[in-house]
Amino acid sequence: LIFDNHIKSLFTLSKYAMRIKAKCFVQIGSSDEYGQNKSPIKESARESPLSPYALSKLTSTHYLQQCYEKGILNTVIIRPFLVYGERQGKERFLPYLIDNCLQDREFKVTLGEQIRDYLYVKDFNNALIKTLNNEKAYGEIINVASGIPIFIKDVISEVNKIIGKGKPIYGGIDYRDNESMELYADINKAKLLLDWEPKYDFKKTIQKVIAWYYENE
Fold first, then answer.
1. CA-CA distances (angstroms) from residue 193 to 44, 128, 142, 185?
2. pTM score of the predicted model
3. Among the listed ranges 52-56, 68-72, 159-163, which one has the minimum average pLDDT value?
């Protein structure tokens, strides 16, 4: 169902873009398309999707690249890594973590040895804006990320320290099957083609994000 919904939606939107002669079609892909590739990951890495979601994103990428190569639609695929910010649902890891700490609960987490790449939503928005009608980016796949690796256990510790409450139980959850232990990006292509680089520091912005959830509980 996940695969089917992604592909049907993509075909419908891309056909409409062709019909109205859109200048550019921007697809928001996913870092999950890379699978277990060694970090820092470049866009030239051969993808290795490990889930139906990742496979649907990669299939969309290949379809849109063919559209560009055949000259029927200018396309750009941007691959965000872990975008975070205010208003995310609690099914996502950071809001889940913040909520449990704010409520001073005991809660289970993994050992936190995974390395991830967190990007603040305003940095992501700026990259997306710089992608629109940018001829240098046509036909390209571009990573959009902070490029700065951080251990999940350090994310948990930082949120826990700022809030001053909450009791994470490390090792209470096993790693997922095929868990990627390193997933962070090489962002040189974004800097070159989009004239973009992230401006927001994780430790500063996470305080703003926590404050938003505190005020909107």
1. 15, 12, 9, 16
2. 0.93
3. 52-56
